[in-house]
């Protein structure tokens, strides 16, 4: 399959290997050298941040030397600044001298995260990043102190992937918090996070997380390479990364999984996948992504396996319903009347009596108005949202039928389809079904069930040709791997799930070697 | 040869018309000319215009492919 | 990374492809009518010969490892002679692909869409096949992996459903061999031998590209055996449901028997399920022949076969309509002309003629190496 | 990857499509019944019965219009007439839901093959409609007799035959494919159900018929029609039909078996056991006895007592044995009578003994294949019944045996 592997390689990225602070500022007017004279540095900074009200550069005295403390006041935690930095710097009775910045930090700010900046670009970068820079006269370096960010959103329940049983924590916008949420669950020294800075304007931190002794080395390289190649002005959400690293854009199916749930990310990491956390986005991507991932909710693993398997089957069938039901209605009612039992046919015909549109137009109107309603419902302010749903229910549900514009059966079909399309645990997968549904309706209205079949075969061919980071999208089913079937259509009990999925080629294919199987205690006489 | 795809298309097309003509000759006992005519000609009143247009699409496509191959070769030579 | 990415047709996929290929159209059109109620015996006999045919093709390929049939031709006969032979084979494959496609078009237009022109059905089918082949033979394999459960279970379910509907009468199968072995032999030679089983020749262009050539022998035999069993099951189902005469009169007996299904007063007229089976079978069958022709063109023109997909698809569409004026001609050609003048020479005689040359050549090269 | 050709092709496809076979539900009329009569001037007179679906919608329930409409046309072939019906009918007709095919007696006598070919060949017809021969009246009359519970006449007819087959078995249960394969087979002759009209045909065709308690005209099952090849030769009554069906694939039926053999007594004075046959299996065999075929029917099955008028004590084994013996004799006798009747009156092998003979003794059958019906008419018949009496409802002894004797 050279064809798909090479799609990405073909687009050679021209400016690769950037993303270090060295190349942050390409403008010639910013000097690169950090001067021994602090005043000169101050002057450069002042020029750079001219007109920025929250840029502060205050003079302090440290160890009897003249120095400046520089920061952007809106980016830092002010309490921390005054309590830990300013007090420590000024309250010292004896002014001890120091050899270099590291020593100074040991003397004055022993408990604060630090970095030593050797050039001017780094200083600017740190200031922009919400850190405090202390420049002291006569030294070739500046000290950068990380005193933490100001307020951020508290950890709350994920809004898009709610579950009934299971952890209710969701990711937030801050990268460190998100990493913490993952680390908290996996206390494994081999859990690693690599950081990339992406976006020439935004300089967003992107963390690539993986468990080193599970993930396949080749896959890791591929992912790393692709993240490196991302070339964009600003990364505002993980959605931007998703579009850049996916194998193929011309497909309605999402090739990258996203989730708000830390437990689901951990599950994926343990399977041998990688997580991509983008600063500023509560949606974490996991790659490689497979078709079946979109049918596995994390709740499946917290429920009894029989129930979970059943629910999973329901999900698969509701996917098919959401995709095909309207088109089947169109096909059967306009092409294959013989497929319906006589009584049903008569009653459907009786309902369609007097409806002025052909079935296709009828269903298109209803589906479109449903899409409009859904979109309006999402974008509306919560207060007005209620109104939309009431109007929608009245207009679509009742008035249309009573006015004789659409038939009753059709309302049932559309409603059921709509409900079925909400079953998928991941939102952007249901987008695919929504979009494709119109294509099938179209095809069914031309060619009846033959058209539906043609569409299905085309869709499967398309799905089968998709790859996510080189892994076939339909992996455990096609190519078929009998050993990986325990977590696809049904979920086997947890104690049976001893192997990691082999289609990801994990380094350690076995989760646990133990042959434990739960059961009641053995009766007394039975002990051997 | 530069126009290989188009050439192959024409070759295979003519040859396959030849094959079905031979079979029709065997089955129908009609003069050769009428059979060839029936096999190639466009019958009105049927939907056969569809397959003729598909044939045209195939032909245009093959020309397009040849053109692209040629262009690619030129650029690779010049570089 | 690349070792993960490079994926060849796996043995399981090969198995599925052969399985669907063999059943493909043979399950729908009436086969072995000469043997009357013993058609299933005839199929069984033909299957045993089919195993032999599979072995023979595999033996031929194993003499020149890594080479497909066309490359073997060029090896044995030289560039020009081999090229001429390859063009003949390409024509043969295209012709058969068009015939198979025409079968399906006739089926659709006589059973489901009475008004729709065959041209349209042919075009839509070819578009799907082109799309599939453009993406590669592996995609064909994997698509089949997705559809095989449905394909298989539908075939089995039809039988069970007809049985539950109470439409089967196994007494229709009696008397077994009432008129002796003669009708069976007549059905096997040459029709059944060439029609589903001899057509394996198209796989000589696919087998060399599977992941493990050595094990493929077993797989071929298994697939032929399994598909033979399904065909026998199918024949029994048709005869028991329709009776010998009705089966012989039906253009597409499997569809006619599926029409008898009537369960719970709700599940009726499920012949569309059969249409699905047939449709997928036809797609694979046309696809494999198409692929064979493409491989030949690739070898001759030294261009990647993807470039030829669309033009050749257009030719197949054209031929499938023009191949015969009416259904009677189509059937007559299929019964008289094709087995004698196409199947037997291309499936048996030419490969058999090539074999000694190949043996001699490989022996010589071996000696040369030593 | 170059996607352009596919886009082009898909767009082409979009333009090519003309939705040839598309018919909206609003543009069709569902045909539920077809009636074929002999035409006055032309060969056939075809009557279609179509459902008026608007009568079945919730909002218009109880409207004035009739639930079904019929329309007749004369012509030389059924297939042409089917497509010509729009002379008087607004919508396109679809035949896949045809429930009953009524064939007039006159037409049936002349042969039905000529128009059955259309039904066999056309992909539109399902194989689940009843074929009935109408007795007395013309076939078209039967498509017009309404019934209050099932308003569409043919749906009523279809339901009626289904229930009748399941409950008692007085219908041969013939479908199109059965009929045609019986016609083509040399070793079997076709049959079809027969119906007759009770009451006045004029009154039955108006919906007032539905408003009285005592329905003035009603379609009744009336046994079956026997064909010689494709020509009607006669009718059999309901009991004979049941017996015929028993030799084929009967499931349930009930019997009233006289308790004691009183040859002279009229049935009015007799006492009966009422038995329900719950499961039965019939085996047909043709044995050769000194070169002549002997037709053998073997019936096995289970029965239960539904009611008894006899004073015997049902808790005893002897009683069970006695009843079983009586039943078996009764059944064997009944079926024997029916077969002999067919042999004598029609000489047409409607039971399929010829096919059975072919399967068992292929070579011997080949000799007599051409004149099998004659051989059949002269063949000896042996019927063996082996029904088992299993249980007797929710009471043990009948209260009849408990009544203190008067004398």
Tell me about this structure:
The complex is a heterotetramer of chains A (528), B (79), C (370) and D (407). By secondary structure, chain A is of the alpha+beta class. Chain A has 15 helices and twelve strands. Chain A folds into three domains: 121 residues, no CATH class; 115 residues, no CATH class; 170 residues, no CATH class. In chain A, helix 6 crosses helix 9 and helix 12 packs antiparallel against helix 13. Chain A starts with a helix and ends in a 56-residue tail after the last strand. Chain C contains twelve helices and two strands; from the N terminus they run αααααααααββααα. In chain C, strand 1 and strand 2 form a beta hairpin. In chain C, helix 6 packs across helix 8. The mean pLDDT of chain C is 85. Chain D has 14 helices and 13 strands. In chain D, the strands form two sheets. In chain D, strands 1, 2, 3, 4, 5, 6, 7, 8 and 9 form a nine-stranded mixed sheet that branches. The N and C termini of chain D lie far apart (106 Å). The model of chain D has no long low-confidence stretch (mean pLDDT 82). Chains in contact: A-C, A-D, B-C, B-D, C-D.
Distance between the termini of chain D: 106 Å
Rounded Rg of chain C: 21 Å
Query: Proportion of β residues of chain C?
Result: under 5%
Q: Which strands sit side by side, in order, in the main sheet of chain C?
A: 1-2
Largest sheet of chain D: 9 strands, mixed
Provide the CATH architecture of chain C.
Up-down Bundle
Structural class of chain D: alpha/beta
Q: How much strand content do the residues of chain D show?
A: 25-35%
């Amino acid at each position: 399959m050279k064809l798909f592997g090479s799609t990405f390689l073909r687009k050679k990225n021209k400016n690769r290997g950037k993303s270090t602070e060295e190349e942050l500022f390409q403008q010639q007017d910013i000097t690169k050298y950090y001067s021994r004279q602090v005043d000169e540095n101050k002057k450069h900074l002042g020029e750079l941040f001219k007109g920025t009200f929250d840029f502060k550069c205050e003079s302090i005295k440290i160890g009897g030397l003249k120095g400046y403390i520089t920061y952007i006041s809106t980016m830092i935690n002010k309490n921390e600044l005054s309590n830990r930095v300013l007090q420590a710097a000024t309250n010292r009775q004896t002014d001890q001298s120091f050899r270099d910045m590291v020593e100074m930090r040991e003397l004055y700010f022993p408990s604060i995260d630090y970095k030593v900046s050797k050039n001017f670009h780094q200083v600017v970068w740190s200031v922009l990043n919400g850190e405090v820079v202390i420049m002291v006269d006569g030294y070739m370096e500046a000290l950068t102190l990380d005193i933490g960010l100001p307020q951020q959103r508290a950890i709350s329940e994920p809004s898009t992937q709610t579950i009934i049983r299971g952890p209710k924590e969701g990711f937030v916008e801050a990268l460190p918090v998100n990493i913490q949420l993952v680390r908290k669950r996996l206390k494994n020294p081999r859990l690693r996070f690599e950081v990339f800075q992406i976006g020439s304007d935004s300089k967003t931190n992107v963390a690539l997380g993986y468990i080193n002794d599970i993930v396949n080395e080749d896959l890791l390289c591929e992912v790393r390479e692709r993240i490196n190649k991302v070339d964009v002005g600003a990364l505002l959400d993980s959605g931007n990364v998703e579009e850049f690293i996916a194998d193929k854009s011309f497909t309605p199916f999402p090739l990258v999984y996203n989730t708000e749930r830390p437990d689901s990310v951990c599950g994926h990491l343990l399977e041998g996948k990688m997580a991509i956390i983008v600063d500023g986005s509560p949606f974490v991507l996991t790659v490689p992504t497979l078709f079946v991932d979109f049918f596995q909710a994390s709740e499946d693993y917290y429920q009894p396996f029989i129930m979970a398997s059943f629910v999973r089957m329901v999900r698969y069938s509701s996917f098919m319903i959401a995709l095909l039901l309207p088109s089947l209605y169109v096909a059967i009612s306009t092409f294959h009347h013989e497929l319906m039992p006589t009584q049903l046919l008569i009653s459907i015909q009786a309902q369609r009596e007097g409806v002025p549109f052909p079935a296709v137009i009828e269903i298109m109107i209803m589906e479109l108005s449903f899409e409009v309603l859904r979109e309006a419902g999402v974008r509306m302010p919560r207060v007005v949202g209620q109104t939309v749903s009431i109007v929608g229910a009245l207009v679509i549900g009742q008035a249309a039928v009573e006015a004789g514009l659409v038939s009753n059966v059709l309302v049932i079909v559309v409603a059921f389809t709509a409900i079925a399309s909400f079953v998928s645990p991941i939102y952007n997968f249901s987008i695919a079904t929504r979009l494709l549904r119109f294509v099938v309706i179209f095809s069914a209205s031309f060619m009846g069930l033959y058209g539906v079949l043609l569409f299905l075969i085309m869709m499967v061919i398309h799905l089968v040709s998709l790859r996510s980071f080189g892994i076939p999208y339909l992996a455990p089913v096609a190519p078929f791997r009998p050993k990986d079937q325990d977590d696809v259509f049904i979920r086997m009990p947890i104690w049976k799930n001893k192997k990691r999925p082999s289609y990801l080629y994990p380094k350690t294919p076995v989760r646990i070697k133990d042959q434990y199987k739960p059961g009641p205690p053995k009766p007394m006489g039975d002990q051997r | 040869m530069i126009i290989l795809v188009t050439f192959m298309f024409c070759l295979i097309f003519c040859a396959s018309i030849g094959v079905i003509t031979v079979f029709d000759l065997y089955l129908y006992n009609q003069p050769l000319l009428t059979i060839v005519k029936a096999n190639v000609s466009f019958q009105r009143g049927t939907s056969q215009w569809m397959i003729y247009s598909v044939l045209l699409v195939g032909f245009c496509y093959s020309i397009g492919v040849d053109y692209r191959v040629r262009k690619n070769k030129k650029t690779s030579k010049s570089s | 990374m690349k070792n993960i990415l490079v994926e060849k047709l796996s043995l399981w996929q090969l198995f599925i492809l052969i399985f669907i290929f063999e059943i493909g159209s043979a399950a729908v059109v009436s086969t072995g009518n000469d043997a009357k109620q013993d058609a299933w015996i005839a199929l069984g006999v033909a299957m045993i010969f089919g195993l032999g045919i599979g072995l023979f093709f595999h033996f031929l390929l194993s003499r020149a490892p890594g080479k497909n049939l066309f490359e073997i031709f060029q090896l044995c006969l030289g560039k020009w002679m081999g090229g001429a032979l390859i063009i003949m084979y390409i024509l043969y494959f295209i012709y058969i692909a068009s015939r198979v496609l025409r079968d399906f078009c006739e089926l659709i237009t006589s059973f489901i869409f009475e008004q729709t022109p065959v041209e349209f059905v042919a075009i839509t089918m070819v578009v799907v096949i082109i799309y599939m082949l453009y993406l590669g033979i592996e995609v064909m394999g994997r698509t089949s992996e997705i559809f095989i459960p449905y394909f298989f279970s539908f075939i089995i379910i039809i039988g069970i459903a007809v049985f539950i509907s109470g439409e089967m009468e196994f007494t229709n199968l009696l008397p077994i061999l009432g008129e002796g072995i003669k009708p069976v032999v007549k059905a096997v030679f040459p029709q059944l031998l060439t029609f589903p089983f001899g057509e394996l020749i198209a796989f000589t262009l696919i087998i060399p590209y599977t992941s493990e050539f050595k094990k493929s022998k077993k797989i071929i035999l298994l697939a032929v055996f399994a598909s033979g069993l399904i065909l026998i099951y199918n024949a029994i189902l048709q005869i028991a449901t329709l009776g010998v005469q009705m089966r012989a009169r039906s253009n597409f007996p499997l569809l006619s028997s599926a029409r008898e299904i009537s369960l719970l007063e709700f599940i009726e007229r499920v012949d569309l399920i059969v249409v699905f089976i047939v449709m997928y079978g036809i797609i694979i069958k046309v696809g494999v022949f198409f692929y064979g022709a493409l491989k030949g063109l690739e070898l001759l023109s030294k261009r990647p076969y993807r470039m030829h997909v669309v033009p050749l698809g257009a030719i197949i569409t054209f031929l499938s309509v023009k191949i015969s004026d009416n259904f009677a001609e189509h059937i007559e050609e299929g019964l008289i002309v094709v087995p004698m003048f196409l199947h037997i020479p291309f499936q048996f005689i030419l490969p058999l003629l090539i074999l000694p040359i190949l043996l001699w050549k490989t022996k010589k090269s071996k000696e040369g190496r030593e | 990857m170059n996607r352009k050709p596919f886009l082009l092709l898909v767009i082409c496809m979009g333009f090519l499509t003309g939705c040839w076979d598309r018919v909206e539900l609003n543009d069709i009329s569902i045909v539920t019944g077809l009636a074929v009569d002999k035409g006055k001037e032309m060969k056939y007179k075809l009557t279609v019965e179509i459902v008026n679906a608007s009568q079945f919608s919730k909002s218009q329930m109880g409207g004035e219009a009739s639930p079904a409409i019929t329309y007749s046309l004369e012509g030389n072939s059924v297939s042409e007439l089917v497509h010509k019906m729009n002379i008087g009918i607004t919508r396109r007709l679809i035949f896949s839901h045809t429930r009953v095919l009524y064939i007039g007696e006159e037409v049936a006598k002349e042969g039905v093959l000529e128009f059955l070919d259309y039904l066999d060949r056309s992909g539109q017809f399902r194989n689940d409609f009843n074929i009935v021969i109408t007795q007395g009246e013309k076939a078209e009359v039967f498509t017009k007799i309404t019934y209050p519970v099932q308003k569409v006449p043919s749906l009523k007819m279809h339901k009626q035959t289904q229930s009748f087959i399941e409950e008692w078995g007085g219908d041969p249960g013939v479908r199109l494919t059965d009929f045609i394969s019986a016609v083509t087979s040399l070793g079997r002759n076709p049959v079809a159900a027969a119906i007759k009209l009770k009451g006045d045909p004029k009154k039955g065709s108006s919906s007032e018929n539905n408003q009285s308690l005592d329905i003035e005209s009603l379609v009744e099952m009336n046994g079956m029609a026997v064909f010689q090849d494709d020509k009607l030769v006669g009718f059999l009554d309901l009991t004979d039909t049941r017996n015929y069906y028993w030799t084929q694939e009967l499931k349930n039926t009930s019997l009233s078996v006289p308790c004691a053999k009183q040859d002279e007594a009229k049935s009015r004075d007799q006492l009966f056991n009422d038995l329900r046959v719950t499961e039965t299996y019939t085996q047909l065999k043709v044995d050769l006895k000194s070169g002549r075929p002997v037709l053998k029917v073997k019936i096995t099955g289970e029965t239960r007592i539904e009611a008894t008028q006899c004073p015997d004590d049902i808790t005893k084994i002897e009683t069970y044995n006695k009843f079983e013996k009586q039943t078996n004799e009764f059944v064997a006798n009944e079926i024997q009578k029916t077969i002999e009747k067919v042999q004598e009156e029609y000489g047409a092998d409607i039971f399929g003994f010829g096919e059975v003979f072919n399967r068992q003794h292929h070579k011997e059958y080949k000799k007599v294949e051409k004149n099998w019906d004659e051989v059949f008419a002269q063949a000896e018949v042996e019927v063996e019944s082996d029904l088992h009496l299993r249980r007797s409802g929710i009471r043990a002894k009948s209260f009849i045996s408990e009544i203190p004797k008067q004398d």
